[in-house]
Amino acid sequence: MKNVHFSSMRLNWATPSNIYDELNNEFNFDYDPCPLNPKFDGLHSEWGKSNFVNPPYGRQIGKWIKKGFEEWHKCKTVVFLIPSRTDTIWWHDYCMMATEIRFIKGRLHFDSHKNSAPFPSAIVIFK
Predict the structure, then answer these.
(1) How confident is the model at residue 40 (pLDDT cuts 50, 70, 90)?
(2) Phi, psi of 96 (to 5 degrees)
(3) Beta pairing, strands 77-83 & 100-103
(4) Could you say which of 7, 51, 90, 102 would form a disulfide bridge with 123 (CB–CB 3.0 to 4.6 Å)?
(5) C-alpha span between 37 and 91 (Å, rounded)
(6) Which residues are 52's β-sheet partners?
(7) What is the rounded CA–CA span in Å between residue 40 and residue 117?
(8) CB-based burial of residue 25 (10 Å sphere; 0-12 exposed, 13-18 middle, 19+ buried)?
(9) Is the pTM above the cut of 0.85?
């Protein structure tokens, strides 16, 4: 089955703890608008001063990136863990305006799965 290679088959990817811990040590996060809780809507909440965002990776991701960009303009720090989709409109409209982009070498292992993600990842920082 070829469709198993498309990341749209899955929207939520739990952040690897080593990635989160390293970023949290650097940015001291006080808010996560994307917890793995289907009843919480971080798109319509006021974000904290220092935010870690691992958004759902489906077609709605552009809305998350836009929201983070808007929160940054409120003098907040926003750190995204996202797929490196440099061919998308949202990447060029928002991510290219980021303070820093860190491309992750190789593919991440999410949720303690044996196999790596079917996409490259990046840390996009608005600070």
Answers:
(1) confident
(2) -70, -10
(3) unpaired
(4) 102
(5) 26
(6) 79
(7) 25
(8) exposed
(9) yes
Tokens 């003098």 correspond to: 75
Residues 75-113: tens digit of each pLDDT:
999 999 999 999 999 999 999 999 999 999 999 987 767
Q: What span, in angstroms and rounded, lies between the C-alpha atoms of 94 and 98?
A: 7
Number of residues that make up the chain: 127
Rounded to an integer, the average pLDDT of 18-42 is 91
Mapped to the 3 state alphabet, what secondary structure does the chain carry?
CHHHHCHHHCCCCCCCHHHHHHHHHHHCCCECCCCCCCCCCHHHCCCCCEEEECCCCCCCHHHHHHHHHHHHCCCCEEEEEEECCCCCHHHHHCHHHCCEEEECCCCCCCCCCCCCCCCCEEEEEEC
The strands making up 50-53's β-sheet, listed across from edge to edge, are: 50-53, 77-83, 121-126, 100-103
Give the pairing of strands 50-53 and 77-83. parallel
Amino acid identity of residue 82, one-letter, is I
